[in-house]
């Protein structure tokens, strides 16, 4: 295992049925003024909102709300939240929802006391906070992003069609606590569930497909991927299968809490390609990843052949006997495609609204990464998007 690293993850997790019962006592650790942040209102229909409000009332909190956080939170919405949190003198931001709501809360948290334009500072210049960061807590209702236990935040500027993620270095940006009750995900539409499942899988792949050394992180990643394959197949048969949904939720958290990135360079080009598509189409994040993944991985396979062959054997169970590495690796990606179709994932970007005349613009909005097996040229990026159509 090559490379030195520091690992710190201060997020406290409350996991399992009824985990919300821990929220009231946890809230006592923070000041009186809480900003409750959520999305389109589904939590009011399924009763989660009422449970959270009861905890806030029991903790005697003074609450303001920011509702309507969209699946791809925008720069304008971020600025709206900053204004609310400043006016309320927020002591805690409580995000109730999926990854986008958690991402949004973190963006507001680092911006409330920032005396510069946060979009410019954090998402264009990728600087770290130099101001006080407002604490964030999460009550998770959709799994996929791992935002409940990391310092990542993705925001979209609709004017420039830039969808940009910043993984902050300061652990104070990480949620101080997260409530993870798998039953809270049961009412999620199937489309959103499978999109989240693929987001989890893609997070693991982004870290797995880098490096050539014998790395403990890769063994952990293979185990997480195999668990996800089993759980995903059970969940699409019965969306209320608690065992399956709890395993998916736990895998999502460990897929992107930085553990399996340790000792790795990590890739992240699939996310850069997918985020460009999301910036143009406002499509669901996990589906933008599924739509570009296979074209990308088939493109870089020759440059990381040994790892792709290992992936085929250790994750997909491909028998390597009498086959070349190229044949084994190709069978692995074919097995991956078959599983993706079994889940009902989007397999091309045209289904998301992308068109041939967008390719140049998509390439312009794609940030090139250097941690994978191949640094892409602009021409290669355009070709991958074209193959993804």
Automatic annotation (TrEMBL):
GO MF entry, a single one: alcohol dehydrogenase (NADP+) activity
UniProt xrefs under Pfam families: ADH_Fe_C, Fe-ADH
CDD domains assigned: BDH (cd08187)
InterPro entries: ADH_Fe/GldA, ADH_Fe_C, ADH_Fe_CS, BDH-like
Domain Fe-containing alcohol dehydrogenase-like C-terminal: residue ranges: 194-388
TM segment ranges: none
Alcohol dehydrogenase iron-type/glycerol dehydrogenase GldA domain: residues covered: 10-182
GO CC list: cytosol
UniProt keyword list: Oxidoreductase
SUPFAM superfamilies for this protein: Dehydroquinate synthase-like
Superkingdom in the source lineage: Bacteria
Protein name: Iron-containing alcohol dehydrogenase
Species of the source: Candidatus Limadaptatus stercoripullorum
């Amino acid at each position: 295992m090559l490379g030195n690293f520091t690992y710190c993850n201060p997020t406290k997790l409350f996991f399992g049925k009824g985990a919300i019962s821990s929220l009231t006592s946890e809230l006592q650790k923070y000041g009186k003024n809480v900003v409750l942040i959520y999305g389109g209102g589904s939590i009011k229909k399924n009763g989660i909102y009422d449970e959270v409000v009861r905890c806030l009332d029991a903790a005697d909190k003074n609450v303001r709300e920011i509702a309507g956080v969209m699946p791809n939170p925008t720069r304008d919405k971020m600025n709206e939240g900053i204004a609310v949190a400043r006016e309320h003198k927020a002591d805690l931001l409580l995000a109730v929802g999926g990854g986008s709501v958690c991402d949004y809360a973190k963006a507001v948290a680092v911006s409330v006391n920032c005396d510069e334009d946060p979009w410019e500072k954090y998402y264009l210049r990728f600087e770290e906070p130099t101001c006080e960061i407002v604490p964030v807590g999460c009550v998770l209702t959709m799994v996929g992003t791992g935002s409940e236990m990391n310092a990542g935040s993705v925001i979209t500027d609709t004017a420039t069609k830039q969808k940009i993620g910043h993984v902050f270095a300061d652990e104070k940006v990480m949620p101080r606590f997260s409530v993870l009750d798998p039953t809270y995900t049961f009412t999620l539409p199937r489309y959103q569930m499978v999109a989240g499942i693929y987001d989890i899988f893609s997070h693991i792949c982004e870290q797995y497909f880098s490096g050539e050394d014998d790395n403990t992180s890769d063994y952990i990643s293979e185990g997480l991927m195999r668990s996800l394959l089993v759980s995903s197949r059970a969940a699409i048969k019965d969306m209320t299968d608690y065992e399956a949904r709890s395993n998916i939720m736990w895998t999502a958290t460990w897929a992107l809490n930085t553990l399996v990135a340790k000792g790795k360079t990590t890739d992240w080009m699939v996310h850069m390609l997918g985020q460009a598509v999301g910036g143009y189409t406002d499509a669901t994040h996990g589906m933008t990843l599924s739509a570009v993944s296979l074209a990308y991985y088939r493109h870089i396979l020759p440059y990381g052949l040994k790892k792709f062959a290992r992936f085929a054997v250790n994750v997909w169970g491909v028998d390597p006997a009498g086959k070349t590495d190229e044949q084994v690796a190709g069978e692995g990606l074919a097995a991956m495609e078959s599983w993706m179709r079994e889940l009902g994932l989007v397999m091309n970007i045209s289904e998301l609204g992308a068109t041939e005349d967008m390719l140049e613009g998509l390439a312009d909005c794609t940030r090139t990464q250097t941690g994978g097996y191949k640094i892409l040229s602009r021409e290669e990026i355009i070709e991958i998007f074209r193959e993804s159509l």
